[in-house]
């Protein structure tokens, strides 16, 4: 019988690509991960890993095993959810991850509703970039997370997760004057930290308009971004929820672009009472939010 814990390590290796990254995510030492994967190979009776120097890649047999692992883990999550439905009251911990503007506009009202309806439920919030949320969900660091995609930055399907649409926003060009995106070919730009979805969106949107943005400043908080625009330090792309406190002197021009936010959780957990309560509260909060 294959060990589920070892299978989970193999699954994480398929996503994170290095043993060191798997160890860090799941609180193992790299040597422990290597030992567990070697034991899994012996249990499977076929090679699962190909090692080239320090690099490790999965064999076709390992990739097939990962697909089975996704289904096994989802069934186990579902079994846990069904057991939880027998309890009379929601208890335990609910860990939610969200990006900064959603924490202020969507998550805060949802937390109030959850705390009022379920006082024994311990709520924990982590503010993080949506690009990091899938890894955190798979590693069971989070139970529910808000993930995003832009028109120019689609999110790949993750077989370990289920997601449902939550809300959609217009993306604006924030500048000192109302001009089309193509007019800012030579302008300095303000963008988020490289590697974030917002940074990738800015670069790809400009490339679609026929130029590569000359990024002068990096800022992840949209309030800071708009303050820099007001100070004539550049132009930026800002989603609707980031424009709530737009300073004087900044013009917002809506673009034919959208940011879409989805509510994500591990497959099999959707009907867990705690996750179901979070889904309900977040959907209701998103429905009440202006522009949501």
UniProtKB/TrEMBL annotation:
<keyword id="KW-0010">Activator</keyword>
<dbReference type="Pfam" id="PF03466">
    <property type="entry name" value="LysR_substrate"/>
</dbReference>
<keyword id="KW-0805">Transcription regulation</keyword>
<dbReference type="InterPro" id="IPR036388">
    <property type="entry name" value="WH-like_DNA-bd_sf"/>
</dbReference>
<dbReference type="Pfam" id="PF00126">
    <property type="entry name" value="HTH_1"/>
</dbReference>
<feature type="domain" description="HTH lysR-type">
    <location>
        <begin position="2"/>
        <end position="59"/>
    </location>
</feature>
<dbReference type="InterPro" id="IPR036390">
    <property type="entry name" value="WH_DNA-bd_sf"/>
</dbReference>
<keyword id="KW-0804">Transcription</keyword>
<dbReference type="InterPro" id="IPR005119">
    <property type="entry name" value="LysR_subst-bd"/>
</dbReference>
<keyword id="KW-0238">DNA-binding</keyword>
<protein>
    <submittedName>
        <fullName>LysR family transcriptional regulator</fullName>
    </submittedName>
</protein>
<dbReference type="InterPro" id="IPR000847">
    <property type="entry name" value="LysR_HTH_N"/>
</dbReference>
<comment type="similarity">
    <text>Belongs to the LysR transcriptional regulatory family.</text>
</comment>
């Amino acid at each position: 019988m294959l060990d589920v814990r070892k299978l989970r390590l193999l699954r994480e290796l398929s996503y994170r690509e290095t043993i060191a990254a798997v160890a860090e995510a799941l609180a193992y030492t790299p040597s422990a991960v290597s030992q567990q994967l070697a034991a899994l190979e012996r249990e499977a009776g076929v090679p699962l890993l190909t090692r080239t120097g320090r690099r490790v890649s999965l064999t076709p047999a390992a990739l097939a095993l990962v697909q089975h692992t996704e289904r096994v883990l989802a069934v186990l999550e579902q079994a846990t959810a069904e057991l939880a439905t027998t309890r009379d009251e929601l208890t335990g911990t609910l860990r939610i991850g969200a990006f900064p503007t959603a924490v202020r506009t969507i998550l805060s009202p949802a937390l109030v509703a959850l705390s009022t309806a379920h006082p024994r439920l311990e709520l924990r919030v982590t503010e993080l970039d949506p690009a990091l949320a899938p890894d955190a969900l798979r590693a069971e660091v989070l139970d529910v997370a808000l993930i995003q995609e832009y028109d120019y930055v689609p999110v790949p399907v993750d077989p370990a997760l289920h997601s449902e649409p939550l809300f959609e926003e217009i993306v604006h060009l924030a500048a000192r004057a109302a001009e089309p995106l193509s007019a800012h070919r030579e302008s300095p730009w303000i963008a988020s930290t490289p590697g974030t979805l917002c940074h990738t969106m800015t670069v790809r949107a400009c490339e679609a308009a026929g130029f590569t943005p000359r990024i002068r400043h990096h800022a992840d908080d949209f309030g800071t971004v708009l303050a820099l625009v007001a100070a004539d330090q550049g132009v930026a792309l800002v989603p609707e929820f980031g424009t709530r406190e737009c300073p004087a002197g900044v013009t917002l021009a809506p673009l034919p672009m959208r940011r879409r936010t989805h509510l994500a959780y591990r497959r099999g957990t959707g009907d867990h009472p705690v996750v179901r309560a979070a889904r309900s509260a977040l959907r209701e909060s998103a429905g009440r939010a202006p522009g949501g």
